[in-house]
Amino acid sequence: MRYISLKMKAYSRDLREKIIQALMGGMSQTRAAMTFGVNRTTVCGYWKRYNEKGEVYYKQHGGHLQSKLQPYKNKLIEWIKESPGITLEEMQEKLLEQCELSISLATLHYHLINMGYSFKKNVSGQRTWTC
Q1: How many other C-beta atoms lie within 10 A of the C-beta of residue 6?
Q2: Which of 95, 87, 86, 91 has its CA nearest to residue 68?
Q3: Which of 30, 87, 114, 124 has fewest C-beta within 10 Å?
Q4: Run of H or E including 130
């Protein structure tokens, strides 16, 4: 049996406040769920959070994690400027030796591409990093 994971966006703050107002006005949680077209569990969660914290807010859904490579991005740029022909393997070794950071080649390549670098061949057919 396979389960399908559906990623849902957070409901708007306005909807959350309307649900809380309805509950404060005496509406049942089940009725509020039906009225606003949300799951009863969602309404229960909003009510519980409102009673504990006094506020209805969004839970953070991502974007708060930082790559372990982030502190070393300037070093990567420096190594590429010093030696444009440096390979991913060589950068991986330098990161391990100098920074004690173990990172996969795929992750390293992904971050270099996101930094605006691409791996191209120069005029003489040598591979080199360009920005």
Answers
A1: 5
A2: 95
A3: 124
A4: strand 127-130
